[in-house]
Amino acid sequence: EDPSLERHFKGHRDAVTSVDFSPNKKQLASGSMDSYLMIWSMKPQMRAYRFVGHKDAVLCVHFSPSGHLVASGSRDKTVRLWITSAKGESTVFKAHTATVRSVHFSSDGQSLVTASDDKTVKVWTVHRQKFLFSLSQHINWVRCARFSPDGRLIVSASDDKTVKLWDKTSRECIHSFCEHGGFVNHVDFHPSGNCIAAGGTDSTVKLWDVRMNRLLQHYQGNSVVNSLSFHPSGNYLVTASNDSTLKILDLLEGRLLYTLHGHQGPATCVAFSRDGDLFASGGSDEQVMVWKTNFDAADYGDVVKPQKYGSSVDGTHGTGVEMDCGIHHKKTKTQDSGRTHEQQEEDTSLANTLEHIMGQLDVLTQTVSILEQRLTLTEDKLKECLENQQKIIQNKTN
Questions:
Q1: What is the distance of C-alpha 252 from the center of its chain?
Q2: What pLDDT is stored for residue 170 in this prediction?
Q3: Residue numbers in the chain where pLDDT is lower than 50
Q4: Would you kindly state where each structural domain of the chain is located, as residue ranges?
Q5: Measured at the alpha carbon of residue 57, what is the angle toward residues 51 and 59, in degrees to the nearest 5?
Q6: Backbone angles phi, psi at 285, to 5 degrees
Q7: What is the pLDDT at residue 350?
Q8: Under 8 Å between Cβ of 60 and 77
Q9: CA 131 to each of CA 94, 113, 114, 126, 351: distance values in angstroms, whole numbers, following the listed order
């Protein structure tokens, strides 16, 4: 069955720049040039929240692993961490000296990586938003930065036409991939952590093996690639392009699988849900669209297999091409045979409880940060009042 348009959301007043599903798929966050963050409910007839705070375009959004926080980055040079409740409370910090283009939580929810037009990538703690370190070898705007699934690596994409791979511990650039012929708009890690994919203004999508630092696949399209997202199985990639289309690439076969038309004007962003059942897209037409993937689970396969050279329809060509990222998604029956149904249910229940506790800790931490910011503002106002009073008294005595 082909992917199908499930629903679309209207509420933004300018181009949509970024979309991300909450881990439980109950909410969808979107950022826009209209300076607002929107949180859409996936339940029918539930109202959306418009979060006001940024003073300029919101260029990136990302849910924390617990789903209780959303990070957003803006042209106002700040990053905000929002609690996803009706109140729309947030803490704000000046993250960069120029536009913030990218925000991304680590898989443990403890760190945040940001990328900016100030040519740097920065890493922060989520708790109290403490600055940890900066990565600064790019020589032009940095459009995108992502943690690897295990949190040990960071990848960044820049207008200097390079994709850089960084070691988070040593803070050194391990490798620069220089095959793009234009600005690199977006980059992300394969779910296995062994590969990366990037798309840019040269209308190509390229996949590299980060262990061997070599090009695995290359897709030549007809239009600027603005965004991409891996399906959680690792076997598919969806892209959003300036020609208004979304394209789904089959990484096993090295070919274009679908071209989807929906947006009027450039498709600016796209993201799969955490389980891969849905993907969302945003465009310059101010719309957010939600699509049902409709992939057959049997298509996910055990491993991304080596593929042959090939080309495909619609101007997209896949070449070069061993793609063995070492993913094993299907469980064999023997793996679970020694465990009772009750034990599995207990494990699931415990995991859910721990996840809930972590989520509540996120919210508590964020609430404390918000209160601290308010106290600081109150102290500053009190100091200002006292200074004004002292000036009045001095003027009177003079």
A1: 24
A2: 97
A3: 298, 300-315, 320-322, 326-338
A4: 4-292, 354-397
A5: 90
A6: -80, 10
A7: 76
A8: no
A9: 10, 10, 11, 9, 30
DSSP 345-361: HHHHHHHHHHHHHHHHH
Model pLDDT for residues 165-210, shown as the tens digit of each residue? 999 999 999 999 999 999 999 999 999 999 999 999 999 999 999 9
Tell me the C-alpha distance between 63 and 66, whole Å.
8
Query: For 372-393, how does the pLDDT look when each residue is reduced to its tens digit (9 = 90+)?
Result: 777 776 777 777 787 788 888 8
Closest by alpha carbon to 6, among 18, 21, 14, 15?
21
Place of tokens 């050279």: 309
Pinpoint the alpha helices (H) of the chain: 333-337, 341-397
Phi then psi for residue 207, to 5 deg, are -120, 130
- Sequence letter at residue 271: A
Amino acid at 9: F
Give residue for tokens 């796209």: 270
Q: How far apart are CA 21 and CA 29, in angstroms?
A: 6
Q: Thinking of the domain 4-292, which architecture would CATH place it in?
A: 7 Propeller (2.130)
Q: Which residues pair with 209 in a beta bridge?
A: 195, 214
CA distance 277 to 275: 6
Q: What is the pLDDT of residue 353?
A: 77
